[in-house]
Specification:
The protein is 46% helix and 7% strand. By secondary structure, the protein is mainly alpha-helical. A hairpin with a 5-residue loop joins β2 and β3. It is flat and about 85 Å long.
Length: 331
């Protein structure tokens, strides 16, 4: 397949031809039943989720606060998911057709996909939590505070005030599932564990571990994307109601991209930091260090080094070198 063929295929995945004879209805992809063994019998009803007359479609009262704000932001999570999948589709097109690119290549597409997709998941948690808080008839203040990253306290003047207290996204999600759907998470289950590993991968790029360089394969990205989606789909199958409308359509897109990648990128692709493949083995080398409190005895600059006995020429760390080339020596 050439560039135009792959581009057309990707466009058809994201913009399928409408069916003039039938309305669109969201269905689970067969992999969810056959590979994961999920039960979606609750979706077999003629009155589908999202329909006007479905029991989970409710009426927001006139003048009830919160409705306008929640409506304006209701599609942010899904659109972030969609945007990340689009970027991943772009990566497949680029790596399958640009023969000048190395494999492994530098970081380009995969970290933005990871960060944006997880942002979609957190947006889903935030919006669902706020909707549940507004519509619940018996939710405790403690639970609402937890979901909003708040804490209700008494000031020195005796007035009730709110303080910010950040909680991890997955902890808030577990509270949302328990109080919003009556589902207590088994944190040892393989789907929750996969979700935690996805969180850890996202955290690597958000809170970089500077002592641990990490390469990322296209398979890693596919696994991450599905793990996050299953974090919504898996409890949906348990509580017999879809937690986020549109999640099954997103999983269809993921599966079609996976099949396309297996065809045009059979060996996959790897992105990694520029210097990931370098191993200096403890050799002396030059590096940029702009701090004001440097130990100049241990880490001298060139002027300070001139007053010392000559040593082996240091390795020069230069971004102009090829990612997989050997370190160059200073002249």
């Amino acid at each position: 397949m050439d560039y135009d063929d792959i581009s057309t295929e990707i466009d058809s995945i994201f913009n399928p031809e409408p069916d003039d004879e039938d309305f669109h209805r969201e269905w689970p992809q067969e992999r969810l039943r056959n590979h994961h063994g999920f039960d979606f019998s609750y979706m077999d009803e003629f009155n589908w989720e999202g329909a006007t007359m479905h029991p989970h479609t409710r009426l927001w009262p006139e003048k009830e606060p919160g409705g306008d704000e929640l409506t304006r932001s209701m599609d942010v999570g899904k659109r972030l998911f969609y945007a990340a999948l689009r970027v991943f589709g772009d990566s497949i097109l680029t790596y399958a057709t640009d023969k000048k690119l190395r494999n492994p290549s530098e970081l380009r597409y995969y970290p933005p996909v990871i960060l944006t997709f997880w942002s979609g998941f957190e947006a889903f948690i935030r919006h669902s939590s706020e909707l549940m808080i507004h519509t619940s008839k018996d939710l405790s203040v403690a639970a609402a505070d937890y979901l909003r990253d708040e804490l209700t306290v008494l000031s020195r003047k005796g007035t009730v005030e709110k303080e910010t207290k950040h909680r991890p996204a997955l902890d808030r999600y577990a509270v949302l599932l328990q109080y919003g759907f009556g589902y207590k998470v088994d944190r040892g289950s393989k789907y929750w564990q996969a979700l935690e590993r996805a969180r850890d991968l996202r955290d690597y790029y958000t809170h970089i571990d500077a002592m641990n360089s990490r390469a990322l394969s296209s398979k890693d990205v596919f696994d991450f994307l599905e793990a996050v989606m299953l974090g919504i789909i898996w409890p949906s199958s348990r509580v017999k109601r879809t937690l986020q409308l549109g999640i099954f359509d997103l999983h269809w897109i993921w599966d079609q991209l996976r099949e396309l990648a297996q065809t045009v990128l059979p060996e996959g692709h790897i992105e990694q930091p520029f210097f990931h493949g370098w191993h200096l083995n403890g050799e002396q080398h030059l590096f940029y260090c702009p701090f004001t409190n440097v130990d100049n005895v241990k880490f001298p600059n060139s002027d300070e080094q001139m007053g010392r006995p000559p040593r082996k020429d240091p390795v020069v760390i230069s971004p102009s070198a090829a990612p997989n080339s050997a370190p160059s020596q200073a002249e």
